[in-house]
Amino acid sequence: MNSDICxxxxxxxxxDFYQYELPDMPRTNKGxxxxxxxxxxxxxxxxxxxxxxxxxxxxxCFSCGAKGGDVxxxxxxxxxxxxxxxxxxxxxDWGV
Length: 96
Prior knowledge:
The protein is α+β, with helices and mostly antiparallel strands.
């Protein structure tokens, strides 16, 4: 099971994932932590409070407190899925 988790996580580039999931995210090449645009976890109207890490997949909203360490955590929180169901969803969506 651990090898499946590692396979899925390593097959999905956080940069590609967030560019797909957050199409309105500002495009920039500066640093690992980037402005993710409006937070997808609450009715956000203040750009800049949601940040994503393009290396690890971590994310954090300084307004509502949503945070997680990778794209699996993002998928779990956004879709309301368990860890295993989030892995299955990511594997299916990303062809892993």
